[in-house]
């Protein structure tokens, strides 16, 4: 059995993705900063017959993130799918003239260094499997800079560029990199942005060897 590791697992998109992949036989590693939170999610998934376990890590703490992913692979099984989807901090959502250099450094640690740390930790296992999928979840500022949210606009663009380069480098090895761009509020009332609908999009990105990037709402 292989595992999907969801970094930034919460009760919305994270839980929906866990259920979607769990229905098709994946074990689920739930990673967030709060152990109690992911333990509750794991119990809910167990009630639906899905094997899941929670692990604690802060994506800005490279050592804790690597350790959580290592434990997940040891205790649940090889990580075939990695999803990076933590919710950005409010400091990353300020207008550009109110965004400090420290804000930008933290946003880069969150959205560029964090994903790179996670990828480097799981890549060896994916290579041993001979397959894998790396899923990045971002907002619209990843492709269209918005001066009202300067931190995410800057860091998401870097994350998107990193994903694109990974896609080119890893595709020949059977490891696929995909980006889901969500230009709206998750669970905000639009059916296209409902957690279950987005989880289905992520499943399709995993199973369909198509484009690198999918923008929700674009055909």
Task: Note down, in words, how this protein is organized.
With 219 residues, the protein is an alpha/beta fold. It has helices spanning 13-23, 35-47, 62-76, 101-129, 150-170, 195-207; strands spanning 3-7, 27-32, 52-56, 79-84, 132-139, 175-182, 213-215. α4 links the parallel β4 and β5. α4 packs parallel to α5. The longest helix has 29 residues, at 101-129.
Total beta strand runs: 7
What portion of the residues fall into strands of 2 or more residues?
15-25%
Termini separation: 33 Å
Biggest sheet, spatial arrangement of strands:
3-2-1-4-5-6-7
Multimeric state of these chains? single chain
Basic shape: globular
Count of alpha and pi helical runs: 6
Helicity range: 40-55%
Round the Cα radius of gyration to an integer and report it.
Answer: 16 Å
Class derived from helix and strand content? alpha/beta
Major sheet: size, sense and barrel closure?
A: 7 strands, parallel
List low-pLDDT spans: none
In short:
The chain is an alpha/beta fold and 219 residues long. 47% of the residues lie in helices and 19% in strands. The protein starts with a strand and ends with a strand.
Features:
219 residues, alpha/beta, seven-stranded parallel sheet, 6 helices, 7 strands, 47% helix, globular
Write the layout of secondary structure elements.
Elements: E1 3-7, H1 13-23, E2 27-32, H2 35-47, E3 52-56, H3 62-76, E4 79-84, H4 101-129, E5 132-139, H5 150-170, E6 175-182, H6 195-207, E7 213-215
Parallel strand pairs: 1-2, 1-4, 2-3, 4-5, 5-6, 6-7
């Amino acid at each position: 059995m292989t595992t999907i590791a969801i970094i930034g697992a919460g009760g919305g998109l994270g839980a929906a993705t866990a259920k979607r992949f769990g229905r098709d036989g994946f074990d689920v590693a739930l990673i967030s900063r709060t152990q109690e939170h992911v333990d509750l999610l794991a119990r809910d998934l167990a009630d639906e017959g899905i094997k899941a376990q929670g692990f604690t890590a802060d994506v800005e703490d490279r050592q804790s993130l690597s350790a959580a992913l290592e434990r997940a692979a040891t205790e649940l099984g090889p990580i075939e799918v990695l999803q990076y989807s933590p919710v950005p901090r409010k400091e990353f959502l300020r207008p550009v003239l109110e965004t400090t250099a420290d804000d930008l450094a933290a946003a880069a640690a969150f959205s560029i260094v964090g994903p790179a740390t996670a990828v480097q930790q799981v890549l060896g296992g994916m290579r041993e499997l001979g397959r894998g999928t790396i899923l990045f979840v971002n907002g619209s500022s990843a492709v269209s800079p918005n001066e009202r949210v300067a931190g995410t606009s800057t860091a998401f663009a870097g994350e998107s560029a990193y994903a694109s380069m990974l896609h080119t480098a890893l595709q020949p090895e059977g490891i696929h990199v995909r980006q889901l761009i969500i230009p709206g509020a998750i669970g905000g009332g639009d059916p296209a942005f409902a957690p279950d609908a987005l989880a289905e999009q992520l499943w399709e990105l995993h199973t369909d060897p198509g484009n690198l990037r999918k923008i929700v709402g674009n055909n």
